[in-house]
From TrEMBL, chain B:
Subcellular location: Cell membrane
Species of origin: Paralcaligenes ureilyticus
Membrane disposition: Multi-pass membrane protein
Pfam families the UniProt entry points to: BPD_transp_2 (PF02653)
GO cellular component: plasma membrane
Record carries keyword Cell membrane: yes
Protein name: Amino acid/amide ABC transporter membrane protein 2 (HAAT family)
A GO molecular-function descriptor: branched-chain amino acid transmembrane transporter activity
InterPro entries registered for this protein in UniProt: ABC_transp_permease (IPR001851), LivM-like (IPR043428)
Automatic annotation (TrEMBL), chain C:
Protein name, per record: Amino acid/amide ABC transporter ATP-binding protein 2 (HAAT family)
Alphabetical GO biological process terms: L-amino acid transport
Keywords: Amino-acid transport, ATP-binding, Cell membrane, Membrane, Nucleotide-binding, Transport
Statement: the UniProt record of this protein carries the keyword Transport: yes
GO molecular function: ATP binding; ATP hydrolysis activity; branched-chain amino acid transmembrane transporter activity
Coiled coil: none
Domain called ABC transporter: residue spans: 5-237
Family: Belongs to the ABC transporter superfamily.
InterPro entries registered for this protein in UniProt: AAA+_ATPase, ABC_branched_ATPase_LivF/BraG, ABC_transporter-like_ATP-bd, ABC_transporter-like_CS, BCAA_Transport_ATP-bd_LivF, P-loop_NTPase
Automatic annotation (TrEMBL), chain D:
GO cellular component, one term: plasma membrane
Compartments where found: Cell membrane
Family: Belongs to the binding-protein-dependent transport system permease family. LivHM subfamily.
Membrane topology according to the record: Multi-pass membrane protein
PANTHER family the record matches: BRANCHED-CHAIN AMINO ACID TRANSPORT SYSTEM PERMEASE PROTEIN LIVH, HIGH-AFFINITY BRANCHED-CHAIN AMINO ACID TRANSPORT SYSTEM PERMEASE PROTEIN LIVH
Keyword Transmembrane helix (UniProt): yes
Organism: Paralcaligenes ureilyticus
Name listed for the protein in its UniProt record: Amino acid/amide ABC transporter membrane protein 1 (HAAT family)
Gene Ontology biological-process entries: D-alanine transmembrane transport; L-alanine transport; L-isoleucine import across plasma membrane
TrEMBL record, chain E:
GO biological process: D-alanine transmembrane transport; L-alanine transport; L-isoleucine import across plasma membrane; L-valine import across plasma membrane
Organism (species): Paralcaligenes ureilyticus
Lineage: Bacteria, Pseudomonadati, Pseudomonadota, Betaproteobacteria, Burkholderiales
SMART domains attached to this UniProt entry: AAA (SM00382)
The keyword Nucleotide-binding belongs to this UniProt entry's keyword annotation: yes
Molecular function as annotated in GO: ATP binding; ATP hydrolysis activity; L-isoleucine transmembrane transporter activity; L-phenylalanine transmembrane transporter activity; L-valine transmembrane transporter activity
Protein name: Amino acid/amide ABC transporter ATP-binding protein 1 (HAAT family)
C-alpha cells in the first residue's frame, strides 16, 4: 500500500519562495525513492497542501492532513511562526511533525513528536564568524538584520552573542523590515563607522540587494551571512558584488560529495533551476524518513504506525546532500515535558567567489 | 456516522472557531461603520487583546475568563484614549490615522520584550472551547441587536447620514462616536483573546494592515446594513479558501474573483434585507398572478 | 412658430414607482414655456429625463430630429440643451470662477467666452467680487445665482430651469425674471419649472400643468394665469 | 554623511511619490482608494522584465509597453467593475473592496505564472554602479526616479490646475451629476483617469523594479501602505500632495534611521502621520470647506 | 427668549455679521429678512452652535449659548430646518422623525438591554408621536418609505416634522417655503400659526414677502451683516431703507 506523507508548506504568499523550493526537494526525493521501488515495496504518496505562511492556515492544513487524509507523518510548515501554531496539533494527535526549515529556538521543545533537520544558526555562525575574522583580519564589524522576521531576528541574536564571545566590537547595528527595498539610509549610517566587515542576518533576496546598495555607496567591505545567504538567488541579484561574502552551512553547492552532486544535477534537470539550501534539506529529510521507514514494520493500524515512526526516527543516520546527519535530543524544556529532536551536523564555511560559494580554505 | 463526525470535527474545528472569531471581528468593525466611522484600528485592538490575554495566561495562573476580560478591557481603554483626539477626523483620514496607529502598535509589539519581539508568544495554552465562542458571539449579537433597535442605534444611523443634522437632533455626536469606537475595540480585543487561546502562538505580524483590510472586507462583503451581514460575510470568507483548496495554486485568484463578482452583483453585501424583501415581494406578486 | 423640442409619451420610473406617466409636450423655438405643478408632481423628474440623467421607461425627447433619449447626458448638453437643476449642483470645492469656466466646457470660442464671462458677472456682481473664493462658501441665494450664470455660460439653445427663483430675495427674483425675458428675446428657448406660478406664467408664452405625473392642462400663459382651476390650486386662491 | 542621507531621503521620497501619483489621481477623481494599485505597480515591472529579458526589447520601449499594458488593465478594471458600481450608487466602501479582489487575483495569477521568487532585470539593462559627486554616491536610476517624479508631478499639476480638462476632473470628483449637467463626458474621463493612473503605477513599478532588484508578486503590498499614507498626508487626491507627502515620508524614514533608530523607522513615520492628521485633519493640502449649513 | 447681543462674525477677514442685536420674544413669530448673502443663515448657525461668534453674546432663556455644543443647544429647546435640506436619506420617514426625539427617550442602558416594559412603552409612544407629526405635514402615508424618495418640497416638510420632534421651545425655519407653491405656502402658514398656538415660538428666514408679512409679529432686516430695520410688518414694508435694499418697488403681487 502507499505510505501517505503530508507536506504542509507555504506555496503562495511571501514565504512561497522557500516553500516551493522545499516542496521541490520533497518531490524529487520521493520520486527517486519510488522509482527505486519505494520503501519495502510501498510507494511514498505525498499529499501537498499550501499553508500560505499563515498560522491559522498551518493549523488547518495540519488538521486536514492528520485527521482527514490520515497521513503517517507531516513535513513542514515552512516558517517557524507557523510551526509554533501547527506543531502542537501534531503533538496532541501523536503524529510526527518534521520541519526542514524551522530554525527558531524552542520549536523542538514543544513535544516529543517534533523533529527538524534544519541546522540552527547557533551551530553554524560561531564557526563561520571565526573563520571570517581570521581570513579578513577583522577588527570591528557593523550589523544589519531584519527585525520583524523570526528567522532573521533569531540569526541576529546568535550573531550578537557570537560577536560578544569573540570580542569583536560592533560599530553600528541597523534593522530593516519585511518588504523594505531601500537600505541606503542604514548603509550610509553603517559606512560612517568604517567597519571591516558587515554582518548580515538576512534572507538571500534582501542580502543581494543590501550588498548591491552598499557597493553603490562605495562600501567595499566583505559580508558575513547566515543560512539565508546560502542560495543561488544571492548571485542572481548581486552577481560578483557578492564576492568575498562568507557563509557557513552544512550544505554547499560546491560540496563535491557524490550524493550532493547527484542531487544538484537531478534537481537542475527536473526543475530547470539550481537548488538552494531549503531544497537540499527537504531532499535529505525525505531520504532520512525513507531510510527510517525501511526498519519500521507498518501494521496498518495508523496510531501504532505513527508511534512507530516517532520511536524509530531518532536513530536515523544519513549521509546526503547536506553531509553526515544524525538527530540529537532538543535541550530540555523549562516545563520539563518531553522534547523532540534537532539536527546534528557540521558546518562548511564558504566564501563567495565569481558568482558562487566555494569552500573557504 | 459518528466516526465521520469525529473526523470532520477534528479536521475542521479550527476553521469553525475561526468563523466565530472572524464574525466577532466583522461585528467589531460593523459597530464603527454603523455610525459612519471607517476605523481600521480593529486589527490592532485585536492584537492588544490577544497579547493581554496571552500574557496573563502564560505568566500568571489566573483563570481563562480573567484573561479574556483583560483582553477586552485593555483595548477598550486604549480605544478610549486614542479615540478622543482621533475621532475628529472623518472618512479616509480617520481610516489612515487608525491605520497609522495600527502600525505603531505593531512596531511596539515587535520591540518589546514582554511580547516576545518578532517571535511573538508561543506555547499559549489551548483554552478556547467551542461553546465559549458560541456563547460570546451570541452575547455580542444580542447586545448589538438591542442597541440597534434603540435610540443609540438610531443616533448611529443619523450620525452616519449627516453629522451636522444629527447634532441638531440633540445627539451628542462625539460621545456616540467614541462609544462605538470603544465598543468596537472591546469586541475586537475579545476576538483576539479567544483566537490566541486556540492557535498556540501570536506574533506582531498577525495584526497588521492586511488583517485590518481582511476584517473590513468580511463586513462589507456580508453587508453592513444589519448584524447578520458581517456574520455571514465572516463565515463565507473563512470557509471559502478551504472549499477552494482543490484549485491549488490558483485558489486565491478564484477567491478574488468571487469577491469581485459578489461585490458587483450584490453591492450591498450578501445579506441585504432590502433586496431580500424585494425578492419576496416579487415572488408574491408572481404567485398572485 | 416652429417647434424645437418635442416630448412624446415620456414615462419615467424610480424602481417600481412611476413618477412621470406618459406626458407629451412641445417647446416652440424662442419661446418661454412654463411647467407648473404641486410638490412631487414630477416636474424635476421630467427635466432630469430630458437631460438624460434619468433614463425614460418609454417615450422620446426630440430636439429637431434627434432623439435625445438615446444620447448620453454630455452629448445632450453638447447639442445645446442645458439645465439649471434643482438643488443647484454647484461644485463647492471649485472656485466661483472655475464653476463659470466649466459652464463653457462644451465651447471652444475663447473670445466669445470671455465676453460672456463679463456679461454674467455684470448680471450678478456679487459673483465677481467673490470670483476666486470657493463656491461652497456662498450663501444659498448666491449659489442660485451662480447656477444660473453657469448655465448661461454654455450659450444653450434650450435652457431648462428648475425653480430658478428659489431662495432669492424679492429684488433678485424680479431681476431674474427680467433677465430671463431679456435673454429669451435674443432667441433662447426656455423651459421653466416654477413654484412662483404667477410670475412664471406672466412671462411664459405657453404653460403646462402637471399633476401626479400627468399633464392635465395645456394652454397659453395668459389663459392659464386666469384659469380658475390654476388660480385655486397654485396661486393660493 | 548628512548629505548622503538627505539624498537617500530625496530618492526614497521620490519612489513613494511616483507610486502615489497614480494612486492619488484615482482617489482624487473617482474617490476610490484603489487597493489594486500595488498589484498594477507590480505587474508593470513584470511586463517590462518579460519584454527586456525574453524579447530583448530596449528599456524605453519596454517601459512604454508596460505602461500601455497596465493602463489597459486599469481601464478594464474601471470598465468592468467600477463603472457598474458607480451606476448603481453603492455604499462608498464597496468599490474599494472590489479592488481588493482585483489585487488578490492579479497577485495570485502573477505568482502562478512567474513563481514566488524575486527577480531582477538582467545585468546591463541600465548603467550599473554609481558616480561620485564629492562625498555623494549617486546612481543613474536614482537620478532618473527623482527627475521623473518631479516632471510627472509638474505635468499632472498643470493639467489639473490650468486646463479645462483638469477642472472637469475636479468637477467629476465632487459630483458626477453636476458634471453631466455641464456637458462633461463623465464616463470617458473616468476611463481616462483609470487608464492614466494605472499607466503611472506601471511606470513606477518598472522604475522601482530597476532600482531595487526585487521584483516579486508581493512587491506592491508594502508600497500600498506607504502609498495610502502619502496621499492622505498630501490631502485627498492632491497632486502636489503626492509629491510632498512622498518626500515627507522619505525624509521621515531616512532621518529616523540616521538619528533615532532603524527599529523605529515605520513607527516614527506613521506616528508623525498620526500627529499631522490631528493638527490638519484633511492632510497638508486638504482644503476645508467651513460652511456647514 | 433668544437674544443676540452685539454679535459679529468674520470668515477669514470677511465680516459677515456686524454688531447684530435683536430679541426674539417668547410666543411670537419673528422674521429675519434681507438680501442674499446678508448673513441670515449665519445668524441661525450661530444660534444653533454650528458656528462660534467672533464677538458678542447669545442668550437663550437666560442661558448663555457661547460655550455650548450644538446638541446641548438643541436639548435646551432650539430646533431648526436647513436652507439646503439635510434629511437622513437612507432612513425611513418615520425613523427620521424618531431620531429627532433622541434626547427625550429616557430609558437607561439597562432598560435598553433587557428590553424592559418601560423601554417598549417609550419606543412605542415615540413611534406614535412621530406618526402624528408626519400626519401634520401630510406625509404619514409615506411613513415607511425612504426619505430619499421624496420630492424637494416633501423633504422640506419632513425636515419640519423632524425639527418639531425635538420638542423645541423655539423653532428656527430657514426658508421653509422655498420650492413650494402658493397653495402649499398657505397651508404651511396655517400650520405654523397652529404650532405657535401650541406654545412654540418661531424664528424664520424667508424671501416670500406674502408669507413673512402675513405671519410675523415682528421682523428684523439684515443688510450686509447689519440690522437696518426692526419692527412690525407694516412698518418694515414701508421703510424706505428696506425697500431700497431688499424689497424693491412693490409690484402688484
Ligand atoms: N430618487 C427617487 N426615488 C424614488 N422616488 C422618487 C425619487 N425622486 C423623486 N421621487 C418621487 O417621484 C415623484 C416626482 O418627484 P419630482 O422630484 O419630479 O417632483 P417635483 O414635481 O419636482 O416636486 P417639487 O416641486 O417638490 O420639487 C415624487 O412622488 C417623488 O416622491
Ligand atoms: N464659511 C464661510 N466662508 C466664507 N464666507 C462665508 C462662509 N459662510 C458664509 N459666508 C458668506 O457670508 C455671507 C452670509 O452668508 P449667509 O449664508 O448667512 O447668507 P444668507 O443671508 O443666508 O443668504 P441667502 O438668502 O442667500 O441664503 C455670504 O456672503 C456668504 O458667502
Ligand atoms: Mg422639483
Ligand atoms: Mg441663507
Amino acid at each position: 500500500a502507499d505510505i501517505k506523507i503530508g507536506v504542509a508548506e507555504a506555496l503562495t504568499g511571501p514565504a512561497g519562495k522557500y516553500g516551493v523550493a522545499i516542496k521541490n526537494g520533497f518531490t524529487l526525493a520521493a520520486d527517486e525513492i519510488n522509482a527505486k521501488g519505494g520503501v519495502n515495496g510501498n510507494k511514498l504518496a505525498l499529499i501537498v497542501e499550501d499553508e500560505q505562511g499563515k498560522k491559522e492556515e498551518a493549523i488547518n492544513v495540519f488538521k486536514k492532513l492528520i485527521f482527514q487524509d490520515k497521513v503517517l507523518m507531516v513535513f513542514g510548515p515552512t516558517l517557524s511562526n507557523s510551526a509554533f501554531a501547527a506543531d502542537p496539533i501534531a503533538n496532541a494527535a501523536k503524529v510526527v511533525a518534521f520541519g526542514t526549515s524551522n530554525t527558531a529556538d524552542g520549536i523542538t521543545q514543544m513535544g516529543p513528536y517534533t523533529f527538524r533537520n534544519s541546522v540552527m544558526e547557533a551551530d553554524v555562525l560561531p564557526v563561520s564568524t571565526r573563520a571570517a575574522v581570521k581570513h579578513f583580519n577583522i577588527k570591528k564589524v557593523a550589523v544589519i538584520y531584519g527585525n520583524d522576521d523570526a528567522f532573521t531576528k533569531d540569526g541576529y541574536n546568535v550573531f550578537k552573542a557570537t560577536l560578544a564571545d569573540q570580542k569583536i566590537p560592533v560599530t553600528d547595528t541597523e534593522a530593516y523590515a519585511k518588504g523594505d527595498v531601500d537600505f541606503k539610509a542604514q548603509l550610509t549610517k553603517m559606512k560612517a563607522g568604517n567597519p571591516d566587515a558587515i554582518v548580515c542576518s538576512c534572507l538571500a533576496e534582501e542580502a543581494g540587494n543590501i550588498i548591491l546598495q552598499a557597493r553603490s555607496l562605495g562600501m567595499k567591505q566583505p559580508f558575513i551571512g547566515g543560512n539565508g545567504f546560502n542560495s543561488p538567488k544571492l548571485f542572481d541579484i548581486a552577481k560578483d558584488a557578492a564576492d568575498n561574502s562568507i557563509m557557513g552551512s552544512p550544505w554547499s553547492s560546491e560540496n563535491t560529495a557524490p550524493a550532493n552532486q547527484a542531487f544538484i544535477k537531478a534537481y537542475q534537470a527536473k526543475f530547470n533551476m539550481a537548488p538552494d539550501q531549503f531544497a537540499a534539506q527537504a531532499y535529505d529529510a525525505m531520504n532520512i524518513l525513507a531510510a527510517t521507514l525501511k526498519n519500521v514494520k507498518l501494521s496498518g493500524n495508523l496510531a501504532k504506525d505513527r508511534e512507530a515512526v516517532r520511536v524509530a526516527l531518532p536513530e536515523a543516520k544519513w549521509d546526503g546532500a547536506t553531509g553526515k546527519f544524525s538527530f540529537r535530543p532538543a535541550p530540555a524544556s523549562k516545563s520539563g515535558k518531553a522534547v523532540g529532536y534537532d539536527a546534528q551536523q557540521d558546518a562548511i564555511v564558504n566564501i563567495a567567489q565569481h558568482n558562487k560559494f566555494v569552500v573557504l580554505k | 456516522m459518528l466516526d465521520w463526525w469525529d473526523a470532520f470535527w477534528s479536521t475542521y474545528n479550527t476553521v469553525i472557531y475561526s468563523i466565530g472569531v472572524n464574525a466577532l471581528l466583522a461585528l467589531s468593525i460593523y459597530v464603527t461603520l454603523a455610525c459612519g466611522l471607517l476605523s481600521l484600528a480593529n486589527a490592532a485592538f485585536m492584537g492588544i487583546g490577544a497579547y493581554a490575554a496571552a500574557i496573563i495566561s502564560l505568566q500568571t495562573g489566573l483563570p481563562f475568563p480573567v484573561a479574556l476580560a483583560a483582553g477586552t478591557v485593555l483595548p477598550a481603554l486604549v480605544a478610549l484614549i486614542i479615540g478622543i483626539p482621533t475621532l475628529r477626523l472623518s472618512g479616509v483620514y480617520l481610516a489612515m490615522a487608525t491605520l497609522g496607529f495600527g502600525e505603531v502598535v505593531r512596531i511596539v509589539l515587535l520591540n518589546m520584550t514582554i511580547t516576545g519581539g518578532p517571535m511573538g508568544l508561543n506555547g499559549i495554552p489551548l483554552k478556547t472551547e467551542f461553546w465559549h465562542i458560541l456563547l460570546l458571539l451570541a452575547i455580542v449579537l444580542y447586545i448589538l441587536a438591542r442597541l440597534r433597535r434603540s435610540k443609540i442605534g438610531r443616533a448611529f444611523e443619523a450620525i452616519k447620514a449627516d453629522e451636522v443634522a444629527a447634532q441638531l437632533m440633540g445627539i451628542d455626536v462625539s460621545g456616540h462616536k467614541l462609544f462605538a469606537f470603544v465598543l468596537g475595540g472591546a469586541i475586537a480585543g475579545l476576538a483576539g483573546g479567544l483566537n490566541a487561546h486556540y492557535t498556540f502562538t501570536i506574533g506582531p505580524g498577525n495584526y497588521a494592515f492586511e488583517s485590518a483590510v481582511d476584517i473590513l472586507t468580511m463586513a462589507v462583503f456580508g453587508g453592513i446594513s444589519n448584524l447578520i451581514g458581517p456574520t455571514v460575510g465572516a463565515t463565507i470568507l473563512t470557509v471559502l479558501p478551504e472549499i477552494l483548496r482543490p484549485f491549488r495554486d490558483y485558489r486565491l485568484a478564484i477567491n478574488g474573483l468571487i469577491l469581485i463578482l459578489v461585490v458587483l452583483y450584490l453591492p450591498n453585501g450578501i445579506w441585504d434585507p432590502r433586496r431580500i424583501h424585494a425578492f419576496w415581494q416579487r415572488r408574491k406578486a408572481r404567485k398572485g398572478l | 412658430m416652429s417647434e424645437i423640442l418635442r416630448i412624446t409619451d415620456l414615462a419615467v420610473s424610480y424602481g417600481h414607482i412611476e413618477a412621470v406617466k406618459g406626458i407629451s409636450l412641445t417647446l416652440n423655438k424662442g419661446e418661454i414655456t412654463a411647467l407648473v405643478g404641486a410638490n412631487g408632481a414630477g416636474k424635476s423628474t421630467t427635466l432630469l429625463a430630458i437631460s438624460g440623467l434619468l433614463k425614460p421607461a418609454r417615450g422620446q425627447v426630440w430636439l429637431d430630429d434627434v432623439d435625445l433619449s438615446q444620447l448620453s447626458p454630455h452629448k445632450i448638453v453638447r447639442s445645446g440643451v442645458v439645465q439649471v437643476a434643482e438643488g443647484r449642483a454647484i461644485l463647492t470645492t471649485l472656485t466661483i470662477h472655475e464653476n463659470l469656466e466649466l459652464g463653457a466646457y462644451t465651447r471652444r470660442d475663447k473670445v466669445q467666452i470671455a465676453q460672456d464671462m463679463d456679461w454674467v458677472y455684470s448680471l450678478f456682481p456679487v459673483l465677481k467680487q467673490r470670483a476666486g473664493g470657493l463656491a461652497g462658501n456662498l450663501s444659498g441665494g448666491e449659489q442660485q445665482m451662480l447656477a444660473i450664470a453657469r448655465a448661461l455660460m454654455a450659450r444653450p439653445r434650450v435652457l431648462l430651469l428648475d425653480e430658478p427663483s428659489m431662495g432669492l430675495a424679492p429684488l433678485l427674483v424680479r431681476e431674474i425674471f427680467r433677465v430671463l425675458k431679456e435673454i429669451n428675446r435674443t432667441g433662447l428657448t426656455i423651459f421653466l419649472v416654477e413654484q412662483n406660478v404667477r410670475q412664471a406664467l406672466r412671462i411664459a408664452q405657453h404653460g403646462y400643468v402637471l399633476e401626479t405625473g400627468k399633464i392635465v392642462l395645456a394652454d397659453s400663459g395668459e389663459n392659464l394665469l386666469h384659469n380658475p382651476r390654476v388660480i385655486q390650486a397654485y396661486m393660493g386662491g | 554623511m548628512l548629505e548622503q542621507q538627505l539624498f537617500n531621503a530625496l530618492s526614497l521620497g521620490s519612489v513613494y511619490a511616483l507610486f502615489a501619483l497614480g494612486f492619488t489621481l484615482v482617489f482624487g477623481v473617482l474617490g476610490v482608494i484603489n487597493l489594486s494599485h500595488g498589484a498594477i505597480f507590480m505587474l508593470g515591472s513584470y511586463v517590462a522584465l518579460l519584454l527586456v529579458d525574453k524579447l530583448s526589447m530596449p528599456l524605453p520601449l519596454a517601459l512604454l509597453a508596460a505602461m500601455l499594458v497596465t493602463g489597459l488593465i486599469g481601464f478594464l478594471v474601471d470598465y468592468l467593475i467600477l463603472r457598474p458600481l458607480r451606476a448603481r450608487n453603492v455604499p462608498h466602501l464597496v468599490p474599494m473592496i472590489a479592488t481588493i479582489g482585483v489585487a488578490i487575483m492579479l497577485t495570485n495569477l502573477t505568482q502562478g505564472l512567474f513563481g514566488t521568487d524575486n527577480k531582477r532585470f538582467p545585468f546591463g539593462t541600465i548603467p550599473e554602479g554609481s558616480f561620485n559627486w564629492g562625498h555623494l554616491h549617486v546612481t543613474a536610476v536614482q537620478v532618473g526616479i527623482i527627475g521623473i517624479s518631479f516632471v510627472l508631478m509638474l505635468v499632472l499639476l498643470s493639467i489639473m490646475r490650468k486646463t479645462q480638462l483638469g477642472r472637469a476632473l475636479r468637477a467629476i470628483a465632487e459630483s458626477p451629476k453636476a458634471a453631466y449637467l455641464l456637458g462633461i463626458n463623465v464616463d470617458g474621463l473616468f476611463y481616462l483617469t483609470s487608464f492614466a493612473a494605472a499607466a503611472l503605477g506601471g511606470a513606477a513599478g518598472v522604475l522601482v523594479g530597476l532600482s531595487f532588484n526585487a521584483i516579486s508578486p508581493y512587491m506592491g503590498q508594502p508600497m500600498l501602505l506607504k502609498g495610502i499614507a502619502v496621499i492622505i498626508l498630501g490631502g485627498m487626491g492632491d497632486i502636489r500632495g503626492a509629491l510632498i507627502g512622498g518626500l515627507f515620508l522619505g525624509f521621515a524614514e531616512v532621518l529616523t534611521v540616521a538619528y533615532i533608530s532603524s527599529d523605529f523607522r515605520d513607527a516614527v513615520a506613521f506616528g508623525l502621520l498620526f500627529l499631522i492628521l490631528l493638527v490638519r485633519p484633511s492632510g497638508m493640502f486638504g482644503k476645508i470647506l467651513e460652511r456647514k449649513a | 427668549m433668544l437674544q443676540f447681543n452685539q454679535i459679529s462674525k468674520e470668515f477669514g477677514g470677511l465680516r459677515v455679521l456686524d454688531d447684530v442685536t435683536f430679541d426674539v420674544p417668547e410666543g411670537s413669530i419673528f422674521g429675519l429678512i434681507g438680501p442674499n448673502g446678508a448673513g441670515k443663515t449665519t445668524v441661525f448657525n450661530l444660534a444653533t452652535g454650528l458656528l462660534q461668534a467672533s464677538g458678542g453674546q447669545i442668550e437663550f432663556s437666560g442661558h448663555s449659548l457661547g460655550k455650548l455644543a450644538p446638541h446641548q443647544i438643541t436639548q435646551l429647546g432650539i430646533a431648526r430646518t436647513f436652507q439646503n435640506i439635510r434629511i437622513f436619506k437612507d432612513t425611513s420617514l418615520l425613523e427620521n422623525v424618531v431620531i429627532g426625539m433622541h434626547a427625550h427617550l429616557d430609558y437607561g442602558f439597562g432598560g435598553l438591554l433587557s428590553n424592559s416594559r418601560s423601554f417598549q412603552r417609550i419606543e412605542a409612544a415615540a413611534r406614535e408621536r412621530a406618526l402624528e407629526l408626519l400626519s401634520w405635514v401630510k406625509l404619514d402615508h409615506k411613513a415607511d418609505m425612504l426619505a430619499d424618495s421624496l420630492s424637494y418640497g416633501e423633504q422640506r416638510k419632513l425636515e419640519f416634522a423632524r425639527a418639531l420632534a425635538t420638542q423645541p421651545k423655539l423653532l428656527l425655519l430657514d426658508e421653509p417655503v422655498a420650492g413650494m407653491n402658493s397653495a402649499e405656502k398657505s397651508e404651511l402658514m396655517t400650520q405654523i400659526l397652529s404650532i405657535r398656538q401650541r406654545g412654540y415660538s418661531i424664528f424664520l428666514i424667508e424671501h416670500d414677502m406674502r408669507f413673512v408679512m402675513g405671519l410675523c409679529d415682528r421682523i428684523a432686516v439684515l443688510n450686509f451683516g447689519r440690522i437696518i430695520a426692526q419692527g412690525p410688518p407694516d412698518e418694515i414694508r414701508n421703510n424706505p431703507d428696506v425697500i431700497e435694499a431688499y424689497l424693491g418697488k412693490e409690484e402688484d403681487e
